[in-house]
Specification:
Layout lengths: L1 H28 L6 H29 L2 H17 L7 H4 L4 H33 L5 H30 L1 H20 L18 H14 L1 H30 L8 H26 L1 H20 L4 H29 L5 H28 L7 E3 L2 E3 L1 H19 L1 H8 L18
Antiparallel strand pairs: 1-2
Helix pairs in contact: 1-2, 1-5, 1-6, 1-7, 2-5, 2-8, 2-9, 2-13, 3-5, 3-7, 5-13, 6-7, 6-10, 6-12, 9-13, 9-14, 10-11, 10-12, 11-12, 11-14, 11-15
C-alpha cells in the first residue's frame, strides 16, 4: 500500500511535467519555428538515451544494492534536478539565453533525471515481486496499472493551465514535491530480505554477473520473444509520443491545450483496461491479452491517424488506452513468472536498452521526417488526404499491430508451459525470492 500510494502521487507529477515540457518547447520556446518537431523529439530522446547507455550497468548494481535505499536516493536526486530548471522560468534568465541554449539545458536535466530512473524502476519492479505473492500478482499488477492510468487522467489536463495561466515553474515545483512524497513512502516500507539485493560477500565480479544476466536472458524463449515484439511496438509508439502535439494542432485543428485532454482520454481507457485485464486473463490467458491488446491498439492508432475531429480522436484514443492498460497489466506477471528475483535488475537492463534504442530511432526519424522530407506533404490517395503527421501515425499503428502478432506464438507456448524456463540453467548466488 505504501509503494502504491507513493508511486500514484509521483506519477501524477510526472505526467504534469512531461506534458508541460512538450508544450513549453513546442508552443513557447520554439513556437512557429521549423525545428519545433525535432526539438520535441529531442527531449524524448534525452530521456531515452540513459536507458541505452546506463541501463546495462545499472541492472547489475540494482541486483547488488539495497533496493529500498536505491529508490530513496534516486527520488531525492530527481527532485533536486527538476528544481534546477526553475531559473529558466524566470524572464530575466530566459531572456538572456538563446532558444537553442534553453532547449539544451532542458535536455540535460531530463537526461540526468532519466539516469536515476535506471536504478529506480528495476528496484521498484523487484520490490513488487518480493512483497506480492505470485498468485496475487495479476491483481496487484492491475491495481498498479490502474493507478498509473488514473495519474494519466489527472496529470495531463493540469499541464496546459499550469503552463499558460500560472507558468511552467508550478509544474516543476509540483513534480519535485511528488518525488519527495515517493521518498517518504518508500522510507516507511520494511522490505523482505529477498528484495534487498545481494550481500557484498555474495557478489561475483561485475562482468561475471553481467554475463550471467546475458546468458539467462538469451536462454529464455519468452524473454527473447517479448523483447523482439516490444522492439517493433516501440518503433511505433516513439513516433506517436514525439508528434502527437503537432497532430492535435494541424490535423484536429484545435489549440495545443487539448493535447493533455487527449492524453487523459488514453488514461481513462487504460483504467478500464487494467481493471478488466485480470478478469479477462483468467478466461483466455495473459498471453492472449498481451498480444491481442497490442494488435488492437495498433489498428486503433491507424484509425486515429484518419480522424479530423477532436471528439472522435478522444474516443479512439480512449479505446487505445483500454488496450494498452490490458497489455501493461498482463506483461508484469509474465516477466516475473520467468525471472528469478535476484535476476530482475539484469533482465530489465538487457530489455530496456533494446527498447530505448528503438524509441530513440523512432523519435529521431519521425521528428526529422516531419521537419524536413515530409514537411508540407499534402497527398491524395483513394479519396483520402495524407499529411506528414497522419502518414507517420498510420505506419506507427501498423508496426504496433505487427509487434503483437510476432509474439503470439511464443507467448502461447509459454502459457501452455512449454517455455516458462530458460533453455540453460544459470547458476545464482542467492535463493530465488
Amino acid at each position: 500500500m505504501l509503494l502504491w500510494a507513493g508511486q500514484g502521487v509521483s506519477l501524477v507529477g510526472d505526467f504534469v511535467l512531461d506534458i508541460t515540457i512538450v508544450l513549453w518547447i513546442s508552443t513557447v520556446i520554439a513556437r512557429g519555428l521549423s525545428w519545433a518537431p525535432a526539438a520535441v523529439s529531442g527531449v524524448l530522446i534525452a530521456a531515452a538515451v540513459p536507458t541505452l547507455l546506463l541501463g546495462p550497468v545499472a541492472g547489475v548494481f540494482v541486483d547488488r544494492w539495497d533496493r529500498r535505499r536505491t529508490m530513496m536516493t534516486a527520488d531525492a536526486c530527481r527532485a533536486l534536478l527538476i528544481l534546477l530548471l526553475l531559473p529558466l522560468a524566470w524572464p530575466s534568465v530566459a531572456g538572456e539565453l538563446p532558444r537553442p541554449a534553453r532547449v539544451a539545458l532542458i535536455y540535460l536535466v531530463v537526461a540526468a533525471a532519466s539516469c536515476f530512473a535506471q536504478f529506480f524502476n528495476p528496484s521498484r519492479f523487484a520490490m513488487l515481486g518480493a512483497v506480492v505473492h505470485q498468485k496475487d500478482m495479476p491483481r496487484a499488477s492491475g491495481q498498479f496499472q490502474a493507478t498509473g492510468s488514473l495519474a494519466a487522467i489527472i496529470g495531463p489536463p493540469l499541464a496546459a493551465p499550469l503552463l499558460f495561466v500560472f507558468g511552467v515553474q508550478w509544474a516543476l515545483v509540483i513534480d519535485a514535491a511528488t518525488f519527495l512524497v515517493s521518498f517518504a513512502t518508500i522510507r516507511a516500507i520494511r522490505v523482505p530480505g529477498d528484495a534487498a539485493g545481494q550481500r557484498p560477500e555474495q557478489q561475483a565480479g561485475f562482468w561475471d554477473e553481467f554475463r550471467t544476466g546475458l546468458r539467462f536472458f538469451a536462454g529464455s524463449r519468452v524473454l527473447v520473444a517479448l523483447t523482439a515484439g516490444i522492439l517493433l511496438v516501440t518503433l511505433g509508439t516513439g513516433a506517436l509520443n514525439a508528434l502527437n502535439v503537432f497532430f492535435v494542432t494541424h490535423n484536429l485543428h484545435v489549440t495545443a491545450n487539448w493535447y493533455g485532454t487527449i492524453e487523459a482520454g488514453v488514461g481513462a481507457g487504460a483504467v478500464l483496461g487494467a481493471l478488466g485485464a485480470g478478469w479477462i486473463a483468467g478466461r483466455i490467458g495473459s498471453a492472449r491479452v498481451l498480444w491481442g491488446g497490442l494488435v488492437l491498439a495498433g489498428l486503433l492508432i491507424v484509425g486515429y491517424s484518419r480522424t479530423g475531429d477532436l471528439a472522435a480522436a478522444i474516443v479512439v484514443m480512449a479505446f487505445v488506452g483500454v488496450a494498452i492498460g490490458a497489455v501493461n497489466t498482463a506483461l508484469s506477471p509474465l516477466l516475473l513468472r520467468v525471472t528469478p528475483q535476484e535476476m530482475i535488475g539484469r533482465v530489465i537492463a538487457v530489455n530496456n536498452p533494446i527498447q530505448q534504442a528503438a524509441a530513440i530511432s523512432s523519435m529521431a526519424a519521425s521528428g526529422f521526417l516531419a521537419s524536413t522530407a515530409l514537411r508540407g506533404l499534402h497527398a491524395h490517395v483513394a479519396g483520402m488526404t495524407f499529411g506528414p503527421y497522419d502518414t507517420i501515425f498510420a505506419v506507427a499503428g501498423l508496426l504496433i499491430a505487427l509487434g503483437g502478432l510476432s509474439i503470439a506464438r511464443p507467448l502461447r507456448d509459454a502459457e501452455s508451459g512449454q517455455a516458462t524456463e530458460p533453455a540453460e540453467e544459470v547458476p545464482t548466488r542467492t535463493a530465488p525470492g
